[in-house]
Amino acid sequence: MKLNWVVAALLSFAVAGCVSKSPTGRSQVLTFTNAQMSQMGAESFAQIKKQQKISNDKAKTAYVNCIADRITDVLGTQQPWEVVLFESEQVNAFALPGGYIGVYTGLLEVAENQHQLATVMGHEVAHVLAQHGNEQVSRAQLTGIGMQVADAALGASGVDNKDLYMAGLGLGAQVGIMLPFGRAQESEADVMGLELMAKAGFDPKESIALWQNMAKAGGAQGPELLSTHPSHGTRIEDLQAMQQQVMPLYAQAQKQSLASCNIARNN
Ligand SMILES: [Zn+2]
To answer: Which protein family is named in the record (predicted)?
Structure first.
C-alpha cells in the first residue's frame, strides 16, 4: 500500500515534468524524447519493410512519392522523408516519427485522385508533427498496460514487445493489435492535415469525398485505416466548416510551380 503511494508520487512527479502543449493547444503528456521516438519509428519501419511486399509498380510509386514530396516540402525541414508503397489490398497508410511514410496499394482504390491521397498523407504526417505516437506510448507506459512498452522502447529488453509500441505509433492493423488514436488526436490530425494539403496545393474540398469514400469502402470490417483512425461523427461537418479558412492557403499554393502528381489509369 505504502509502496504504491510512493510509486504514484514518483510517477506524478515524473509526469509533471513532461506535460506540454500540442500544436492546437491541447495538453499532452510526453515521456519519450524525440530521439527515442525517431528510433522507434526507424525500427518499426524497418520491420514492416521486412514483413510486407514492396510494390514494383514504377508509375504508382512515382505518383505516391510526388504527393509525399509536396506534403513534406511544406514542413520546411532539411531531413528527407522515406516513402514506401506496399503491395497489399489493405486500405491503409501511416507515417512515423523520424520521417517515414508507408502507403498500401489498396488505398489507391479508395483515394480516387491526388487530392484525396494527399488528404490521407497530410492526416498521417499531422499525427507525427503533433507527436500523437509519443502521447500513445507514454499513456501505455504510465497506465502500466505496457511497462514492456517502455522497456522495449528504451532498448532494455530486446525486441519481444515491439508490437506494443508499434501499435502505439498507430500501426495497429499492421501488427494485429488494435490501439486506435483518440478522438482529440483524430480531430487535431484532420485540422492540421487539411492545412498541410492546402499549403501543398491539393484541393481541400476533396478531403470530404475521401472520408466519404473511406466510410463506404472495405466490406464488412471496413478499411484497415479506420481501425487505428476511428471516424468521429462530426468529421465531415468539421472539414466542411474549415473549408473557407484553408482556401487562401490553397489559392496561394496554386501560384507556385508545383510538380504535377498524376497516374495513368488502365481501368
Ligand atoms: Zn488519424
So the answer is: Belongs to the peptidase M48 family.
Domain with 221, as residue range(s), is 22-202+209-254
User: Residue 258 is placed in which grid cell?
Assistant: 508545383
CA of 135 to the centre of ligand 1 (A): 13
Active-site residues: which are they? Answer: 124
Question: Residue 7 domain-assigned?
Answer: no
What SS3 string covers 91-113?
CCEEEECCCEEEEECCHHHHCCC
CB 106 within 8 A of CB 89: yes
State how many domains the chain has: 1
The answer to whether residue 148 sits within a structural domain is yes
Contact call for residues 142 and 31 (beta carbons, < 8 A): yes
**How high is the mean pLDDT in each 10-residue block of the chain (267 residues)?**
57 64 91 89 91 96 98 90 96 95 96 97 97 86 58 49 70 67 93 98 98 85 85 90 97 93 68
227 C-alpha to center of ligand 1: Å?
10
Residue at 16 is within a domain: no
Instruction: Please give the distance, rounded to the nearest whole angstrom, from the Cα atom of residue 13 to the centre of ligand 1.
Output: 30
Is 239 within the bounds of a domain?
yes
